[in-house]
Amino acid sequence: MIREVLRFIIKSNLVIEVIDAREPDLTRSKMIEKFALNRNKKVLIVLNKADLVPRDILEGWKKIFEREGFPTVYISATMHLGTKILRDKIKEVLRGNEGTVIFVGYPKTGKSSIINALKGSHSASTSKIPMAHGYTKAIQKFKIDSKIYAWDSPGIIPPDGNELEKVIRGVNVDKLEDSVKAAIMLFERIRKYNPNAISETYGIEFNTPYEFFEKLALRRGWIYKSTKEPNIDEAAKAFIRDYHKGKIIYYVPPLSMIDDKNSSL
Ligand SMILES: Nc1nc2c(ncn2[C@@H]2O[C@H](COP(=O)(O)OP(=O)(O)OP(=O)(O)O)[C@@H](O)[C@H]2O)c(=O)[nH]1
Ligand SMILES: [Mg+2]
Predict the structure, then answer these.
(1) What's the confidence (pLDDT) of residue 139?
(2) Which ligand neighbours the alpha carbon of 246 most closely?
(3) Where are the domains of the chain?
(4) Quick check: CB of 29 below 6 Å from ligand 1?
(5) Are 129 and 137 in contact (CB under 8 A)?
(6) For residue 120, what pLDDT band results from cuts at 50, 70 and 90?
(7) Among 18, 58, 219, 234, which has the highest number of CB atoms less than 10 A from its own CB?
């Protein structure tokens, strides 16, 4: 799967790396960045889900990535905020030249939502691309500007790292060995950065993560028929899915901003 992504990077002129603005450090892929830069491809970073993060924090991350040499924009694909800025940035980075763009990123960072937001009324064109197994599948390109196209199917980077990192990197919850354990790790991380996020999102009061998942399961009617116990596994999965859907508001500030403003974090 990753090989397919690398092949598209090689065929493109610009790589747009989509990351989750709540967790920029954990949802960027330095491997993909290096691969692209080594092949003389430009890399533009998009911090998506910006509706969940305050502007000064977004500006802080943008500065950090730009200092590293990556042009960076932040947007909210689902709220259609920043799409013009993104379009203009793509033009600027390509310096008026013709080009094809590939969107890459971990699952659930919002690649498809961005593509949909950018498509708007622009027409799509099709080209035949040979795929694995000897089949030829039509891969759509769509127009971003008069001379700029983007591949319609984004490159998905398989989630790697430890259990918590995999969850933050959009792993499919059904692939987790122990979804309750993983959900508790996510729960603790969210609570560290926004102590009220979970109770506010769900309107549930609790003292422990376990109690939260029990109450969530009971409220949704997820109960084992035989024992009448709450199915906390189902609740844990739903919680992780809600996180992926951008329903839980918290963010990790850049280290430099933590030191400046709030050394207790
Ligand atoms: N709050 C918020 N949620 C968003 C935003 N963009 C996408 N989402 C949500 O995040 C989830 C994933 O979005 P997708 O566009 O499907 O992400 P993707 O990167 O294409 O995901 P894969 O195809 O699984 O790799 C969806 O539930 C979106 O509604 C955003 O700007 N803000
Ligand atoms: Mg997608």
Answers:
(1) 73
(2) 1
(3) 2-156, 163-261
(4) no
(5) yes
(6) confident
(7) 18
